[in-house]
Amino acid sequence: MKDKTGQHMKGPSWTYPPRQPVSDIVEKFLDRLPDALRGQATPWRVLAGRLLFSDSRRVGRVFHVLQGAISLRRHFLGEETVIQWATGGDWLVEPDPFSSDAGAWAMCEADSLLIGLPAKAFCHSLDTESAFALAWRRDLLRQLMQMKRHRLRLSHTTAEQRVIHFLMTESPGGRGEMALPYSKATWAGQLGVTPETLSRALTRMETEGMLERISGKGYRVLRPPVSPFALRGRRSRTSPPGISGCNPGREGR
Question: The pTM is what?
Answer without folding.
Answer: 0.67
